[in-house]
Each structure stands twice: as C-alpha cells, then as structure tokens.
C-alpha cells in the first residue's frame, strides 16, 4: 500500500479556499479515516498570495503557474476549481495526459464536453471525481453510480439551483416581485453580479444533463435540452398557482420514455403536498424514482464555500483510497461501462404530454371565456379548472387562468397562437407546465 498520496488545488477562489480550509481544519479527523498520509502539496492561483483568512502552512507551496502543479511527479490528484470551459479544460486534459487523477466541480465543462474528458480519463487509466458538480454537498452522483447500481432509475426531479429557489421562495412567501427578490439574493451572496447563468436556467440545465447521462447511460447533447429560466414568472402566476394547490419551482426533469429520454428544465407547478414543495430558500433537493427503490429524496445545500468543499474533499479521499490500494475506477466513471453508452434520443419539448397552467390577461367583455374554450376544444384540449378575476369597471385587463387536462405541448402552443390572434389579450398568453405524478 502506498504510504503517502499528494494532491494539488488549481484555483483559490470561493470553493478552492473552502477545500483548503476544510482540509486544514479537519486534518485530525481525516487521519483517523485513512491508513496513509494525505498531503495537500501545492495550490496554484494567479495572485500567488494566500487567501485572506486562511493561513496555509509553509509545507503547502503556492504558485501562480498551474502547470508547475500539473507537472509535479509527486502530485497524484489534481483538483480543478477555476471554473469555465477554456483554461479549466486545458488544465484537466494536461493533467490527465500526465497520469493525474482529477477532481472537479465544473458542471458546465462536464455537461458540454464530458464525453471527451471522461473518454480521455478512461484511455489514460485515471479517475475523475465530480460529486460537487451537481447540487453541492448532496451525494446524488455517488448515490446513482453506487447505491442504485443494482436498480434502474426511472425518473429524476431536481431543484438544483439555489439562486432561483431563493428568489421563488421570496416571491411566494413574501410577495416580492422578481427584481426585488433578485437584488436581495445578490446582496446575500446567493446570486452573482451577473446572474444570467442562474436565472436563465443554464446552471441548472448543466446539472440535469449530467444527472440524465448518469442515470440512463446515455450521451446527452446539452443543446438538445429544453431550458427555460424564471425571469417570466410573475406574482400573478404564483398567486393563482397557490389557489389551485400548487407551488412554482425551477425543476429539472428527466424521464425514460421507452427508447427516448424526456429531459427539460423550466419553472414547474408541483402540488403543495409533495416533499419538493417544502424545499425553501437556497436549498437544493433531488427526488429520484427507482424501479425497485421507489422514491428517494436527497436534500441539502447546493452551493457555498464549505458545502461544496465537503463534496470535493470527499472525492479526493475516495480516489486516494483507490490509489493506495492500487486500484483505479472500481466504479465506472459514468456509472455505465463505456461500450454500452450511446447517444440519447431526447424528446422534443413540443412532443411531451403534460397538464398546463395558462395565464391570459384578457379584455373584460362577455363571451371571452367561450371564445378561448372553443379554440382549446378544437385542439382537443380539455379544461380542468378556471379562475377569472372580478370585473374591471374601466375595461382594462383582467387575469384569466386555466388548468388543462393532459395534452401534447404542440397542441397547446398552436391553440395559444390562435387565441393571440383574436386580439382579446393584452399580453402574449403565458403557460407553465404541471407535474403531478412525481
């Protein structure tokens, strides 16, 4: 058994500094769990200065050259925490070609270039740990790859972006509008100065892509996933959803539909009685349905310095144990053996079948509902429930909200286009999808 295993960290930002802090604070506990010495040898960062508030001992080298770390023959594991899809990819590829094992939290890179990176790791006989890439400290990747290895995952539903969940919680519980809730999230550090990747659903979209690939053994082209953020969700939507017994969550959804996969990320109405409905503020949760296991809910902090650091260091230790025992990838990197992984056939969102929440701001005149119902009826779209606000004496817009029975999305979109042409609506008709059989 190897007696000393060394790792290096590239990137000393929020997560990188968290990994270093956790390692140093928890070293006594770590030593009790390992029959070998796990050493943090080098930190690579641009400024070549120790992060404020974290005192690194002299035994840990700090360099501004990531390749010095990558080329060091004593370093067994390279932890990539710079983020992005350019330098990070170069660092990972260079390290893998040097025979280094990898740990990363880089969901964007893995979602869009994972097939290339995973293939390169397998070719070079190294492991890659990426638990922190999805839902922070929640051990969802290890659960799918290991705990559920003898089962068959059927459906996944995930609240996997803390920024959006925080905003929607504030809008739901305190009646704040979107802009106000976003500013509060930024003030508290839950949202970036440029929150686009979060609020437009890109961040969560990367995560559901990774989970889909792991769960079903398929290569998933990120461009094939339907992604819709929360910027168009209004307080009116939240109010009426509540009256119908639902809450609105940004939900990643992945289902096996025969030989095809239904994978999408968008604001979704879910019943107030479902466990996911109680996931508040910046917390994340992933709800998995297995063939044998039934329903499983994993809940925790999906981001933040220390929770993410916990997932990263957990991967480092897992890989270090394999190195010490002279074994590599006892669990396949993608859960499935590579030769059985083929390209997933992703169902187009217009082909899905769902219940829908339709919100229209209509002219306050008699007969409006009859006209709308007539168009929906022609498309074989059945109405389950309707709420219409009280009359507007000034002839302005009044909200009309409809819940449909299950229908194909293409039919709904066609019907809403016809309704829009009637010139009885003040705004473009809006709709949200409903998931009840979670």
Secondary-structure blueprint:
Layout: E1 4-10, H1 14-25, H2 27-33, E2 37-44, E3 61-63, H3 66-70, E4 75-80, H4 87-97, E5 101-104, H5 107-124, E6 128-129, H6 140-147, E7 153-159, H7 162-174, H8 178-187, H9 196-199, H10 202-216, E8 218-219, E9 226-227, H11 235-243, E10 246-257, E11 260-271, E12 283-290, E13 294-301, H12 305-324, E14 342-343, E15 353-363, H13 368-378, E16 383-388, E17 397-404, E18 407-408, H14 409-421, E19 430-434
Parallel strand pairs: 1-2, 1-4, 2-3, 4-5, 5-6, 8-14, 9-11, 11-19
Antiparallel strand pairs: 7-10, 7-12, 10-11, 12-13, 15-17, 15-18, 15-19, 16-17
Helix pairs in contact: 1-12, 4-5, 5-10, 7-8, 13-14
């Amino acid at each position: 058994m190897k007696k000393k295993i060394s790792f290096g960290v590239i990137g000393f930002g929020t997560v990188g500094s968290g990994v270093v802090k956790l390692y140093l604070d928890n070293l006594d506990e770590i030593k009790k769990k390992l029959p070998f010495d796990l050493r943090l040898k080098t930190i690579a960062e641009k400024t070549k200065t120790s992060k404020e508030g974290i005192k690194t001992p002299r035994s840990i080298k700090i360099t501004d050259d990531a390749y010095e770390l990558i080329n060091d023959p004593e370093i067994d594991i390279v932890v990539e925490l710079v983020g992005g899809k350019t330098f990070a990819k170069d660092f990972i590829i260079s390290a893998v070609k040097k025979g280094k094992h990898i740990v990363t939290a880089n969901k964007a890179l893995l979602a869009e270039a994972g097939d290339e990176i995973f293939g390169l790791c397998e070719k070079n006989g190294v492991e890659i740990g990426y638990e922190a890439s999805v839902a922070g400290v929640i051990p969802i990747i290890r659960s799918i790859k290991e705990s559920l290895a003898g089962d068959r995952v059927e459906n996944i539903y995930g609240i996997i972006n803390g920024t959006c969940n925080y905003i929607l919680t504030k809008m739901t519980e305190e009646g704040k509008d979107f802009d106000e809730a976003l500013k509060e999230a930024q003030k508290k550090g839950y949202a970036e100065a440029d929150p686009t990747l979060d609020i437009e659903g890109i961040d969560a979209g990367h995560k559901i892509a990774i989970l889909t690939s792991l769960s079903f053994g398929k290569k998933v082209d990120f461009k094939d996933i339907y992604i819709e953020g929360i910027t168009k969700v209004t307080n009116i939507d939240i109010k009426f959803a509540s009256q119908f017994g639902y809450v609105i969550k940004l939900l990643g959804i992945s289902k096996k539909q025969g030989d095809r996969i239904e994978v999408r990320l968008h604001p979704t109405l879910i019943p107030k009685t479902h466990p996911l409905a109680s996931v508040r503020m910046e917390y994340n949760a992933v709800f998995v349905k297995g063939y044998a296991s039934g329903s499983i809910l994993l809940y925790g902090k999906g981001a933040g310095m220390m929770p993410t650091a916990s997932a990263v260091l957990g991967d480092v230790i897992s890989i270090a144990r394999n190195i010490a025992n002279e074994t590599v990838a006892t669990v396949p990197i993608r859960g499935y053996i590579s030769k059985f992984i083929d390209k997933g056939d992703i169902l187009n969102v217009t082909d899905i079948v769902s219940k829908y929440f339709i919100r229209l701001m209509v002219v306050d005149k008699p007969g409006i509902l009859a006209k709308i119902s007539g168009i929906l009826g022609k498309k074989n779209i059945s109405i389950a429930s309707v709420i219409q606000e009280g009359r507007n004496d000034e002839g302005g817009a009044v909200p009309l909200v409809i819940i449909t029975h299950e229908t194909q999305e293409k039919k709904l979109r066609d019907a809403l286009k016809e309704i829009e042409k009637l010139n009885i609506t003040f705004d473009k008709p809006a709709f949200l999808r409903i998931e009840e059989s979670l």
